[in-house]
Design brief:
326 residues, mainly alpha, Arc Repressor Mutant, subunit A, three-stranded antiparallel beta sheet, 14 helices, 63% helix, globular
Length: 326
């Protein structure tokens, strides 16, 4: 394996790992911050990955598709469906170390579609060994992506990227699968991942670079891109913290009969909501839910992200900004 894939420059790896460790520490210290950041980051990564597959999709296309009242453009819908599949894998990467075959099979079905996957038992063993022997999470994740590259003969780059994130998750924490189907806007609710890297975004942000774990120059591009995205991700954390601090202040100041603290608790885990979801989850009337939503909007906790009166949905202000609604 080392003969096929020369090791990357360790100074580049070191810079990226320092930023990844800082990000991991910040997210471990605040579960609500981690949920908000990974929700936003997973949308960015899913959209970037589909762009690398020549399927352009925006966050608005990805998250807003379920709220449309009419059929959309078939090509945009195809890209949104591909992005939703990537989002599902990012939401719940799964325990790659303990259930290697199950996780790889799932990532293959999400990214490559129907049909038998190409992975063999020896691939599972190689992946477990690579993670166990890795000197750092990033190098271990890169080794896993390279094993997937060989197993798929380089024909499934999106699976390689999902496997890289799943390995990063496995070495930084643990998770379980999301059961059943879910709309994209539900997949930004309480993500179960523990990953901190966005390999697709690293290649499409600030220019467009090709994905390849087999070419030393492309790996260097990936590592340098990861350094930039991690640096920007860390810089964005104060904005998310401000929303959380404001929401906590409003919750603390609410009078005893107010349901605002309950709505804020819901928004912390579910950044995109509808009136019916608020009424259902808080066990209040639709009218009461709408009054609560209007109050939260006046407090600038949420912003409406749908243009029409039917199929209305609101998002926390950090998510609304990503969708161009803030």
């Amino acid at each position: 394996m080392e003969d096929l894939f020369p090791q990357p420059d360790l100074s580049t790896v070191f810079r990226a790992e320092i930023l990844a460790a800082r990000m991991e520490g910040a997210l471990r210290a605040d579960a609500s911050l981690a949920a908000m950041w990974r929700g936003l980051a997973s949308v960015q990564e899913a959209c970037a990955s589909t762009w690398l597959e020549d399927l352009p999709v925006s966050p608005v296309d990805l998250l807003g598709r379920p709220f449309r009242a009419s059929l959309g453009d078939p090509d945009r819908d195809r890209a949104a469906l591909a992005g939703a599949a990537m989002l599902r894998g990012l939401h719940s990467p799964g325990p790659l170390e303990e259930q290697t075959g199950t996780v790889l099979s799932r990532l293959w079905s999400l990214s490559a579609g129907e049909g038998p996957h190409p992975f063999m038992p020896q691939d599972y063993a190689e992946i477990r060994d690579a993670m166990a022997e890795a000197p750092s999470p990033l190098l271990g994740a890169l080794a896993v992506a390279r094993i997937v590259h060989v197993a798929t003969e380089g024909n499934a780059p999106s699976v390689e990227r999902l496997a890289l994130v799943a390995a990063d998750h496995a070495m930084r924490g643990s998770g379980r699968f999301m059961l059943g189907e879910a709309e994209p806007y539900d997949l930004v609710s309480a993500p179960r991942g523990a990953w901190v890297i966005q390999p697709s975004l690293a290649l499409v942000d600030n220019g467009f670079r090709l994905w390849s774990v087999a070419h030393p120059g492309r790996v260097r591009d990936l590592l340098e891109g990861l350094t930039r995205t991690l640096d920007r991700g860390i810089a964005a954390l104060p904005l998310l913290r401000r929303w959380l601090e404001r929401s906590r202040d409003i919750r603390a100041d609410a009078h005893g009969a107010s349901r605002m603290p309950d709505l804020i608790g819901m928004l912390t885990l579910t950044p995109i909501v509808t009136g019916s979801a608020v009424a259902r989850d808080l066990n209040i009337t639709p009218r009461g839910a709408q009054k609560l939503i209007d109050q939260a909007e006046s407090l600038e906790l949420i912003t409406k992200i749908t243009p029409r009166r039917t199929y209305r949905a609101w998002a926390t202000t950090p998510f609304a900004r990503m969708l161009g609604r803030g």
